[in-house]
Specification:
Length: 228
């Protein structure tokens, strides 16, 4: 069976060649673009299964490319893995908020890149229109209908906001969410939700969940994720 089509976007030929070589070895089909304008054109024409997008591009930069792709109904479903230079935390946060699925910093290991690609493609294939009534993640079971939570079969009493944050994170295990993404997804039923209150809520959740609280991981400079 033909492997997925991956569009690699980077203005450095050696990076593109590295990506081409390693993805081709795994059987993926590869497309390439060196500018933001070319990336938008290729994405709309070829409709790749995933886009590897460098943020530092001549002309239209990677963040604007990401914004335009996610604003276009034709390209919005395509998963995006961003390539960033170390220390670009603000750009990472912005990219994730614009809809990118993951990121990897340069210089990168080809094995790590391949792992991130596989994960993003699996997420995309697993996406389902109907939400399950019970989410099982690690040691946790979250009943969305009754709003009951158990950790290792022991009931956990959570506030409304704590429940909303936990269920939001566990619906996408491994995905990194910024504080603003969490704020936008969670309506504060106990009190107004701010970036600082998200941090406080996470601390409270970890304490209440006991050993299972270790699954709530801080991604420094970006936000939080649930890791099984």
């Amino acid at each position: 069976m033909t492997k997925e089509l991956i569009l690699a976007v980077d203005d450095e030929e050696d990076i593109l060649e590295l990506i081409r070589y390693n993805l081709a070895r795994e059987g993926y089909r590869i497309g390439a673009a060196k500018t933001g304008e070319a990336a938008l054109e290729e994405a709309r024409r070829e409709k790749p299964d995933l886009i590897i997008l460098d943020l530092m591009l001549p002309g239209i930069d990677g963040l604007e490319v990401c914004r335009r792709l996610k604003s276009d109904a034709l390209t919005a479903p395509i998963p995006i893995v961003m390539l960033t230079a170390k220390g670009e935390d603000a750009d990472i946060v912005t990219g994730l908020e614009l809809g990118a699925d993951d990121y990897i910093t340069k210089p990168f290991s080809p094995r790590v890149l391949l792992a991130r690609i596989r994960t993003a493609l699996r997420r995309d294939r697993k996406a389902a229109p109907e939400e399950p009534m019970v989410i099982r993640a690690g040691d946790l079971a979250i009943n969305l209908a009754t709003r009951d939570v158990t950790a290792r079969d022991v009931p956990v009493q959570l506030t409304a906001t704590e429940f909303n944050i936990l269920s939001y994170l566990t619906k996408r295990p491994g995905w990194v969410f910024t504080r603003n993404q969490i704020i936008n997804a969670v309506r504060g039923e106990d009190y107004p939700v701010t970036e600082r209150s998200i941090d406080v809520q996470i601390v409270g959740l970890r304490k209440k969940l006991g050993d299972a609280g270790k699954h709530l991981q801080t991604v420094r400079g970006v936000g939080y994720r649930f890791k099984e």
